Request: fold
Amino acid sequence: MASHIKSTIHSIFKSNFFKDSSWAVFGNGIGYGLMLLSGIIIARMLGKDLYGEYGFVKTTMFQFAAFATLGLGYSSTKFVAESKEKQKADIDSIVKASIDITTVASASIALLLIVFATPLSTFLNAPSLASTFQALGLLIIVRAISTTQYGILAGFGDFKRIAYSNTLSGVVMIVGCIPLTYYLGITGALTTLVCSQVIAAVYNAYCINCHAHYSLFKTRSRHSWTIAKFSLPIALQEFTFALSKWLGILIITKYATLGEVGIYTASELWYAVILTVPTFLSNVILSHLSALGDDYNKHKKSVNVMIGVNICCTIVPLIAVYIATPLILNIYGPSFTGMEPVLKISVMTTLFTCCSNVLTSELIALGKTWTLFTIRFIRDLSMVVTGFIVIRGNDGQYAARDYATITLTYTAIFFIVIYIITQYYINKKSKITQSSKNA
Reply:
């Protein structure tokens, strides 16, 4: 028994999955650590209200960019990983299609935001945001393109360069945020954010060209329609998720204060910190699950192992942040009074999110993207409607705490439902495959 366990552990450490995961975790950890530190510095320098404005603008741009990828952050990983093993001649065409679709979509959304910036800012009772939205259309484009680029690099298994890219982005952010925020305030903070994303996108383009001969001026890719069709339900679920996140911030902004937005945004930052490793592993997991093909026994085993790995990677930072809450609040300063319960609730949400991420990757690998979209749409819609009713009913008091609680509740329900459905599909496909072999 002991020798079997030892042999299993040895094989894990020798596997490509472990090597890829190591780069994803330790390499990207540096970049995200620098992003976290820069976020704390910006919050400290701007104060709760201005940081709330910064957080709202950043969230708006990033969520719009997430939708603008049209799900290609995931689809590109799946298609490149599969083609790398079976049809290498298709890779250049797949890369071009992914980048082209993302560029057109993100540019269109950026243009719409520029056109409707004034009515949006008027609705928010913050007319000063109009010029900010108009000036930051570029952020949507470069953020969307870099997201798709990460998906492509993940398909190639080049997690080392992904780690370098995130580190480079973090270095730019930490180096630029202090002087620019000090002299230019929120404008400087947002300028630093744009620069970090532009540099990451340029570096990613160089890395992709090391694998594929992609050119902006080549004729239209023959894979555009195939990839777009597969990505449609993924794009829709990314849209509902991005929209629900944005509407959540919008509801807090409309019925509470920018201070509550600042508290919620700061807590969400630590939520992201705890999920750093599972987030890094998401593309690794999708890449490896996509390569399993029709071996559904391996699918089932791999899913359970990956859920266990994600829980282990989440529970340690979860406990650490929960215990260190008083220290964290002291770092942010006295203007963030009321953040403690919001932070603790956000911390607990990560446990369900990390498990759901594995199941989401498995459903994409199985091609059950429409099923995934339906479940996520119901979750996201329920979250926004409940948040609107509760926050408006309480006149905006404790809005950040209320929305964090609602998020925790629906995230837990989502995990339970998606786990049951994933196991059903794996078992069903396994029986069909076995029957075909017996016949």
About this structure: The chain has a mean pLDDT of 82. The CA atoms of residues 62 and 85 lie 33 Å apart.
